[in-house]
Amino acid sequence: MHRTPLIPLALGVLAIVLLAIFGARATAPGLTAGLAREAQAAIAQAGGTGVTARFTTASGMPSRHPVLIGGNRLGAATRARVARAVAAIPGVGGVRWDNSSALASRAAPAERPLHCEDDVATLLRSRTILFEEGSSRIDASSQGLLDQVSAALRPCLGAIIAITGHTDSSGAEAGNLQLSRDRANAVLTALVARGIPADGLRATGVGSARPVEGLDPRDPANRRIEFSVVESQPVKPTPVDTPGP
Questions:
Q1: Is the pLDDT assigned to residue 187 strictly greater than 60?
Q2: How many CA atoms lie within 13 A of 140 on its CB side?
């Protein structure tokens, strides 16, 4: 009588599967450790300060589909650049961000961080950011004051900070308006150079339209830069925040 070798065949298939599983478990940690090293180098090159790549699943198993952790204060363009840099590493699968902290900020709106407005206002109460006459070039004597302003603004990172330029009413208003805008943009550039993220700053100029209360519009004391926190801005997901196929 001819016997079909079903049991030996099944045992052989099971043995192959078990070998594959144990082989994968033995080699996967080494593979993901190598990918993690390459990912950290790519993240650093892409400007992802504070970002790490986790090559494990929620249960702790090795995975080639990394989760990027941190970087919630980075701009959307930087986050996208970091994710693309990691995704370009050979052997890496779909890349996604861990946005748990960003989701928490959406669920509970952050308190409006007004204290930095008060700190900057205190700094500028007795001193003024000076510019060269009729120019948007910041005077060298104001560089130290800008250092202090940037330090005072750091507690408000993550919010939108408005920079508003003002002039007195001497001269043509069209020229005053343009000069106030140029000076506000010059201050924005100076703050970015001091580490304040550009995507959290907004510069505008109003010319002589808003003189200091109680001052003659022609008074030179109306030439000033003001700062205000206009809104909180939660981190938005980048286009590569979803897992790849």
A1: yes
A2: 0
Phi, then psi, of 95 in degrees rounded to 5: -110, 135
**Is 100 in the same domain as 78?**
yes
Q: Does one domain contain both 97 and 123?
A: no
**241: nearest Cα among 127, 74, 117, 112:** 74
Tokens of 43: 């993240």
Task: Report the pLDDT value the prediction gives residue 172, as an integer from 0 to 100.
Answer: 92
Report pLDDT for 103: 43
CATH number of the domain at 227, please: 3.30.1330.60
- Cβ proximity of 101 and 89 under 8 Å: no
Average pLDDT over residues 57-76: 81
> Tokens standing for 209?
């339209």
Residue at which a domain ends, from 107, 139, 161? 107
Residue 206 CA, distance from chain mean position = 28
Number of domains comprising the chain:
2
